Structure formats: structure tokens, C-alpha cells
């Protein structure tokens, strides 16, 4: 059955989207892992982001293999190692945001494919990952610390990471209901985390120079409505660079494609479709002929940096295109109301 692919007239065609997805699939390893680029390392979060893009583009076999990789590499405590290369663990620590994100990916896949059997197959993996993440609540306001190592110690809570976890918890709660395994405890933990994100900025390590700390509370859904509009407006001029995209960090002349596309999805989620479409068009200077995308550009000297074309940047492009065109049944994964 033909798959309808996103297309943004005058910006990116359906064939362009397919080529980008194919560039991601070309980097996939035989065991299903999707590294940052061929020969690079794999992390569990960007791996899922890439699987989501493959699903949008109709490359379901490759996406399935990616999700199966996640199931096979989960550790007995529900976590994943932070970094692997060619199947060898390079960093044994666990990142809570990484471990929660499978819930987002599986709900996204279910929304597009309707394959409840595959979602049920992955459900125990999602459940164990979320339980691991919630076991690392360490703060007074329900915030979740960002990492754990083999000795059990934890890093501080991060605003971006917790905003993404908030979203993944919403996906997990929805999945739990659909799997007939409701988890009201997850919903309660998510509610408390949302209040921390909205009302207790002091609970999180200050990384405000990073653009992700600016827009992720909106992208993840913890902040919406007028508060979201005000939050985005407050630092727009600090991060948005003309017709190039957005800065990764406020004090460096460096625009990055993935962050730009994530802001596109955040803007789309709060109804600012004009600004979303404008930014999406602006970042296309990072595209290569094979459909892959450079990570970023140092705009003071016009140099690509780092000199790598990352699968997760291409994945963010595909997901942003789907969001602003409302093409697949998963286009609202960052927009539609999840349990609050």
C-alpha cells in the first residue's frame, strides 16, 4: 500500500523526505542500531528519534528492527547504556531521558501503523524503562535526576531532560491504557514533574545558555497556552538567527538543524504555524544531495561544524515536516493533548 509522505511546497518534496529517511536507514547497523552516522556511536534517545522518522517515511521494516534493538539491549534494571559503538558499550551510565523516550517512539509507531501486536511486544520494555526512570526521582518537587552510574549515584536534574521525560510519561500513560495495564502512579508522577517544570526552575541545573532549555518545556507539553507564547517570545531574538535557523547556545555563532526543527515542532504545538514553516524553510541550507543533513553551521565563517551529517538531524527534519503538514497519523505526537 503506498505511503503518503510529508511534502512542504517550495521547500521539500515527498521524494526529498524519502531520501532523508533512506540516508538514515543507510547508517543502520545489522543488529538494528542507528548510530549518529556510519561508524559513529549510538545513544538510545537519538536511535528512537531516527526510528520515528523511518516510520513516517514508510520504512517500517527498518523501524521495527530499531525498536527490537531497544528491547534486546535493555538491561535487567530497565535502563540502557548511554553510549554504544558497533555493539560495544562505551559509556555504562544510564540517562533517564534516554530511558523514557522509547514510550514516545512506540506510541508514535502505534499511531501510524496501527500494529497493536508490535506495541504489545514492546510494552514490557517500555514499562521497565519508565519504572527505572521514576526510581530516580530525587528532588523535593518530583524532578528526576539525569543519570545513574554503576555505583548508583545520580547527576542533577536537567530542565531539558525532564521536559522530554514529561512528554514520554504522557505517552507511557496513554500506552498503558491502550495495553489494558493502566498506571495511575505514572500519571501522578507526571503531574508532579509538570508542576516542577512550570513553577520551580530552581529545581534544575542552570543550563539556560542552551536553546533546548528555552523551548523544551513547550515541546514536551509542560508549558502551553499563553505561558508558552510568552516563554518563546522572551528569548526569540537571543536564539533565532535570521534565515539560518536557531543557535544551539546563546553565546556561540552556531546554528543547528535539529534544534531548529524541534523549535518548529514546539511552535506548531502552540499554533504558531507561520513561524514554524518559516524556520523549517530557513534550516534547509544544511541539506546535502543525498538527503542527509549537516549538524550545524558556524555562521560567522560559513563552516560546517562539526563536520558530520547526523541521522538524528535528518530525523528531526522528517518529524518537523510531518508535524507542519499533518500528513501521517503520528503528526501530532508533540501537539495533541496527552494526559495532564
Q: How would you describe what is shown here?
A:
- This protein has helices at residues 14-27, 44-56, 60-73, 96-100, 102-113, 116-134, 159-178, 184-199, 211-219, 225-234, 236-239, 257-269, 273-282, 311-325, and strands at 83-85, 88-91, 94-95, 147-148, 240-241, 245-247, 254-256, 296-298, 303-304.
- The protein has one domain (14-325): Glycosyltransferase, CATH 1.50.10.10.
- The chain contains 14 helices and nine strands.
- It has a five-stranded antiparallel β-sheet with strand order 5-6-7-8-9. A two-stranded antiparallel sheet has the order 1-2. Strands 3-4 form a two-stranded antiparallel sheet.
- The model has no long low-confidence stretch (mean pLDDT 96).
- The two termini are 36 Å apart.
- It is of the alpha+beta class and 340 residues long.
CATH level-3 fold name: Glycosyltransferase
- Structural domain count: 1
Q: Tell me roughly what share of residues is in helical segments.
A: 40-55%
Mean pLDDT: 96
* Structural class estimated from helices and strands: alpha+beta
Strand content: 5-15%
Please tell me how large the radius of gyration is. Answer: 18 Å
Distance between the termini: 36 Å
Uncertain residue ranges: none
